[in-house]
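Handoff note, outgoing to incoming analyst
You'll be picking up this chain. Sequence as last confirmed:
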Amino acid sequence: MRFARVNGVVIHHTVRGAPDRPAIVFSNSLGTDFRIWDAVASELERDYRLVLYDKRGHGLSEATPAPYALTDHVGDLSALIDHLGLKSASIVGLSVGGLIAQGLAALRPELVERLVLCDTAHKIGSDELWNARIDAVVKSGIASISGQILERWFTPAFRDPANADFIGYTAMLERTTVDGYAGTCAALRDADLTESTRALKIPVLCIVGDQDGSTPPDLVRSTANLVEGARFEIVQDAGHLPCIEQPAATAALIRNFLQH
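Most recent structure output, in case you need it:
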């Protein structure tokens, strides 16, 4: 385990793969930690230097008091990249991690070679949606709404109580700190990156699970349509987290994009 105090917060992270290879930084979704990328990382670490981290309030990173702004998460990632001495990297972001990746590309374009935006968009959800979720989590805890979240995350086949992985990822979600979860909901509520993403001039790949209930394919496609030359790919038999349900297909799309 590695910990670093950057941008005023302690961030848990790990570095995998060959140190002399091109760098990829992974940014995870709301209610998860960097373990969601384990299977994808195993496919890629032979050829890349991989950085995985828990955003503030998630996993083993410090949970500062809610609410958060997207700029807090972007600043954390920017500072972590500087701390690790990376001059540039490709950024792979899932859901809110994709918004963090877009924000980093707008704030510090010199750091970002390419973007892989997984199951994300330039704007996600409405004020009403996020305010209701914040209220529910603060009053009754994440477990009170985890069922509806998991329906959006995973396909029906994966949501089998006999599936040990499903039970494990349910625990990951429900054990996220309330400050981390509610604080990041506020960041999502207030984030609209339409214009800054439209202005991007770097290669972009947008990926989405065909059964994503959180950021459906048409929403992700609308983000791809903002960026000139962006690619759009649908992963079959996956929900909001194709890195978990279809890691080999997800890794293959990332590898192909980075090599061409």
